[in-house]
Amino acid sequence: MTEDSDIKKLILARLETMPEYIQINLGSFGTLGKEDLINHVKKGDDFGKKFIEVQMKYLRTFKQGM
Amino acid sequence: MTSQSALITRPEHDKITKYLSEWNDEIIAEAKKRGVPMKDLAGEKATRAEFEKFLNKQNPSLIFLNGHGDSETVKGHKDEPLVKCNDNEAVLKHKVIYALSCDSAAKLGVSAVEKGTKAYIGYTEPFSFLTNKNKECRPKDDELANVFKEASNQVSLALLRGKSPQEAYDLSQMKFKELMQKFSASNAPPDAEEIRFWLFWDMQAQAVLTS
């Protein structure tokens, strides 16, 4: 198991808890729902990679305290 | 009395632009309350021709751009480019800009400031906001979206109240943090985790560029 795949599993597990009624509006990326986000992360496309990068930054920031 | 005047562009041709346009009702009300003259290029009026016509005649100190964008462009009605990098960003010379638009602080903002824009507040990555798909026909009642409105509108409200661009940016950053803390509370709603993350996304993408 690599560190990258562990991180991806962590992010996917977090996304599974996202309520279905939430829509994320992201300009040129359009409007994304829970399944869209999960697909981007699974595929590892540019947006999926960016999402993981910011999620990790967010988790580190919260761990250290805002 | 104030020497400020403002121009606002707010296309309304799709869901995202309709939300952003409604968010700006609060900004227009604040300008009215403070006696700041404001030209409102809303909906179909948010064209490059109208935008440049107004700037050629008047000299607003503040410009609030709302709409789709990319690193080199901020767009208007039906995504017509209003300001484009290495094209017409000189129209922003000597003005303070808040661009509620994706990515434009990455290149357009930098180029505009190099060409004389006093300050450019915007986002270096896509600006995000959450909506509740059961409330999208009533943007004003969408509590999810209103959280993001609160953080973003802080910039324009602060500028209208006479704060400097750096102060307006700092106040918006503080509002992002305050909201993230609010949605960390033990009694926070079930969607608090998503709200916190996407607020963080916008907070780290927001930038202030000054000459």
Number of helices of chain A: 3
Q: Give me the CATH architecture of chain B, please.
A: 3-Layer(aba) Sandwich
Low-confidence stretches of chain A: none
Low-confidence stretches of chain B: none
Seen as an oligomer or otherwise, the chain set is heterodimer
Sequence of strands across the biggest β-sheet of chain B: 2-1-3-7-8-10
Overall mean pLDDT score of chain A?
90
Kindly estimate the percentage of residues of chain B that lie in beta strands according to DSSP: 15-25%
> What spatial form of chain A do the alpha-carbon principal axes imply?
globular
Counting helices, strands and paired strands, the structural category of chain A is mainly alpha
Strand order of the largest sheet of chain A: 1-2
The N- to C-terminal Cα distance of chain A equals 31 Å
Number of strands of chain A: 2
Strand tally of chain B is 10
What report would you give on this structure?
The complex is a heterodimer of chains A (66) and B (211). Chain A has 66 residues and is mainly alpha-helical. Chain A contains three helices and two strands, in the order αββαα. Chain A has helices at 3-16, 34-43, 46-64, and strands at 22-25, 31-32. The termini of chain A are far apart. Chain B has 211 residues and is α/β, with parallel strands linked by helices. Chain B has one domain (6-210): Rossmann fold (3-Layer(aba) Sandwich), CATH 3.40.50. Helices cover 41% and strands 20% of the residues of chain B. Chain B has helices at residues 15-23, 25-34, 48-57, 108-114, 143-160, 165-182, 192-205, and strands at residues 6-10, 38-42, 62-66, 69-70, 73-75, 81-84, 96-100, 119-123, 129-132, 206-210. The two termini of chain B are 27 Å apart. The model of chain B has no long low-confidence stretch (mean pLDDT 96). The chains are: A mainly alpha (66), B alpha/beta (211). The interface between A and B is medium-sized, with 23 and 34 residues. β1 of chain A pairs antiparallel with β9 (129-132) of chain B.
